[in-house]
Amino acid sequence: MGGKVRFIHAADIHLGSLLHSTGRAPQEISNLIKRVTYEAFVRICNAAIKYSVDFVLLAGDLYDHKSRSVAANQFFVHQCQRLEKENIPVYIIAGNHDPLQEQGELFDLPKNVFIFDSEQVEVQEVVNKEGELIARILGQSYRGRSESRKMYSSFTVPDTGVCNIGILHTQLDPTNNNYVPCSLNDLICKNDIHYWALGHIHQPRILHRTHPVIAYSGIPQGRDFGEEGVGGCFLVEMTPQNEPEIWFIPTSSVVWKRVEIAIDEDEKNVPENFTCLENLILNKAEDILNKVPPIPEGFKLAQDNNWPDFFQGYIIQWILTGRGEIHDLLVEQEEEAIRLLVENLQDRLKDRKPFLWTESVVVRTGKPLPHLKSLKEQNPIFAEIEEIVHLSLTDAQFKKDLVSELGQIWEDRVDHENINEQKFQLDEETLQAIVKQAEEIVIEKLIEGREL
User: Fold this and answer.
1) Is residue 82 within 8 Å of residue 43, measured between CB atoms?
2) Which of 23-32, 112-121, 413-422 has the highest mean pLDDT?
3) Of 252, 275, 299, which residue is a domain's last?
4) pTM for the predicted model, two decimal places
5) CATH number of the domain within which 198 lies
6) Which residue among 342, 368, 394 closes a domain?
7) Helix, strand, or coil here: 174?
8) E strands in 74-223
9) Cα 278 from Cα 409, distance rounded (Å)
10) pLDDT digits over 23-74, tens only?
């Protein structure tokens, strides 16, 4: 007892779901969009075999209720049969997108696959080739599309002599009764569990690096701009006595990326017309294409990994900021200007390897203004505006009051799994953009009104 274990932690595969891309993508990119979630799961299984893991953990939302199909189910079975040949078991909990009571398996599962029950916490013991106990895996599946039970409280083990691993699909929000209400501290206090393999949050995060380790592996293949960056899974190696080693294994063929371009970054070369603006964006595109897509910050890349050999390309949203005379042209003909800019960028970059597909262009530019430093010297009101902006973004109470003043059209507690279509989603990035734009409008109006 108490030996080393090595495993794959993955979650939120949403097998068979499509990327949420729109527009007139060429056939090659359209075909790719249909298969990338499948390819990501193949790479997870490839990694399990390559690194000779003891088992694979899938922490919920293997399927997507909108796209669960016969083909997806059969594909999953075939991949697990590959793992079965290598004596690698697969342990799965069902999440809010694939709850157990909603739809059963369409095919017989291989004997190496175990799906945790939805009515109670189950414990699976893992033994090595010599028959020695090396790990316990605890889990419980969702029984519906929301789950209000505090499952974690029933994760109990007889001892800590082997690695005890809990699988949980949760938002880690004790006030949210849709996705297993609990807090980070609730899991930390369950210190007879060595590793919490979490699912539901689509960005990879290690929330607690010491005992017990608490981690989200993230989505293996992003499907929209809310799932930016390189997706993947974790390779984990641990013993009961020591903190685990965690490596990131990239699995995404396509990377979603928002790119902000300040048109006045180079004050001597602010674009004056649409041709200059298009060239500015194309130069930025070249910079992106000439670099390897970075893995999420703070993670180590698994050794002997073939990233980025299988990387196919980017889906990009360009966000134009800064100030220049071209702002008036963009505003006067915004709809047509953006449409033509998007189409031109798509045509210029679609055949690149890797490809770079422009999904959209967002205009947040403004008219040229005097330098804020000189404005503050002329009138102290501009210093006061700057201070209010700073407080709006840094002071917790000030920010809370601001959000309440924005009105009920905004949803500030963004739930990526249950979007309220009747409201705008107010994340931190959007709030910063609103405040910055408000600051610039106030300054513009003061200057126009000659209140200097």
Assistant:
1) no
2) 112-121
3) 252
4) 0.86
5) 3.60.21.10
6) 368
7) coil
8) 90-93, 113-115, 122-127, 133-139, 163-169, 195-199, 205-208, 213-216
9) 34
10) 678 888 888 988 999 999 999 999 999 999 999 999 999 987 755 678 888 9
